[in-house]
Amino acid sequence: MELRDQVINLELAKKLKELGVKNESIFVWEYFNDQCHGIKYKPYAVVPNPHFDDGMKLYSAFSIAELGEILPNYIQTQVSATSSYDGKYYLEIFKGLDGKWGIGYVMDGSLPPLICNINDTLVNIMAKSLIWLIENGHVKV
Amino acid sequence: MKLSDQVITLETAKKLKELGIKQESLFYWYDYFVNGWSAEYREIVPRCDDLLSAFTASELMDLIPARINILDSEEPFDNFRFNMFACHIGTHDATKFIKHYAINYHCDTLMGDEIFSYPRQLFEHNVLDQNFAECCAKVLIKLIEKGYVKL
């Protein structure tokens, strides 16, 4: 399995940095421009390097294990005092018969999941879920 | 998060190798002899025939089957689907709660009156570990040993 499939993509890495998620990961996206960027194992990242000081940016290329630590086990919703949709939604990771991963926050079988992401690598859908949770105020960074 | 918390332990790595899992990974357990074993990035590990994969969660999740078919049949109650969740478990003195990952396989057939109840599970107990990769590895070992995964 390639490194690229084990960490979040550049777009999601930029978004998580913009949202203020702490840049603590063992891989980083080194970004100079759209033509020149790549993933590096942190101990061997090329920056800081005087040749790349101008314009080289680093974004955390989070892995599954790192995002697993950040994602909450459950989230508590409170839409209104009487809403039957309020309560604890628990994190669940599942795999479809087509081999595609899914991640959701579910209460029980009778209610639709609060959020459900599929159709990408597991690490990317974990990042998408985290972004949604932050943007909707369920996770504070 | 330290690298050692992102890959399987040396002991588990040895077990997976013994079971015949292909040793292809981003990290390998490398024996420095004087300084002992250390998980190292593949770029710096010397190429040799005797590599010991320190698998990551991504690599193991890729190997874990979506569904287990216990009798090689498509009959109801014979198929179980992957399910994973996270929980915090307290230490004995309850001073600390530590995040754990849990994996099980749930039966994908439900009785009419059980629709909203918790599904039956393939393993007697959830497979639990604090380390995401280690949790996946324990499941894979269990599935291979029980004959549900053929290599």
Description of the structure:
The complex is a heterodimer of chains A (141) and B (151). Chain A is of the alpha+beta class. Chain A has helices at 10-18, 64-70, 122-135, and strands spanning 27-31, 37-41, 57-60, 74-77, 87-95, 101-106, 115-117. Chain A has 2 domains: 3-63, no CATH class; 67-135, no CATH class. Chain A is built from 3 helices and 7 strands, in the order H-E-E-E-H-E-E-E-E-H. In chain A, the strands form 2 sheets. Chain A has a 4-stranded antiparallel beta sheet, covered by helices on one side. Chain A has a 3-stranded antiparallel beta sheet with strand order 2-1-3. The mean pLDDT of chain A is 85. With 151 residues, chain B is α+β, with helices and mostly antiparallel strands. Chain B is built from 3 helices and 7 strands; from the N terminus they run H-E-E-E-H-E-E-E-E-H. Chain B is flat and about 60 Å long. Chains A and B meet through helix 2 and strand 5 of A and helix 2 and strand 5 of B. Strand 5 of chain A pairs antiparallel with strand 5 (79-90) of chain B.
What is shown here, in short?
The complex is a heterodimer of chains A (141) and B (151). Chain A is α+β, with helices and mostly antiparallel strands and 141 residues long.
Q: Helical residue percent of chain A?
A: 10-25%
Low-confidence stretches of chain B: none
Average pLDDT number of chain B: 89
The tally of beta strands of chain A, per DSSP, is 7
Tally of domains of chain B: 1
The helix tally of chain A amounts to 3
Over the alpha carbons, how many angstroms does the gyration radius of chain B reach? 18 Å
Please tell me what the overall shape of chain A is: globular
For the termini of chain B, the CA-CA separation is 32 Å
What oligomeric state do the depicted chains represent? heterodimer
In this structure, how is the largest beta sheet of chain B organized?
Answer: 4 strands, antiparallel
| Average residue-wise pLDDT of chain A | 85
Radius of gyration of chain A: 17 Å
Strand content range of chain A: 25-35%
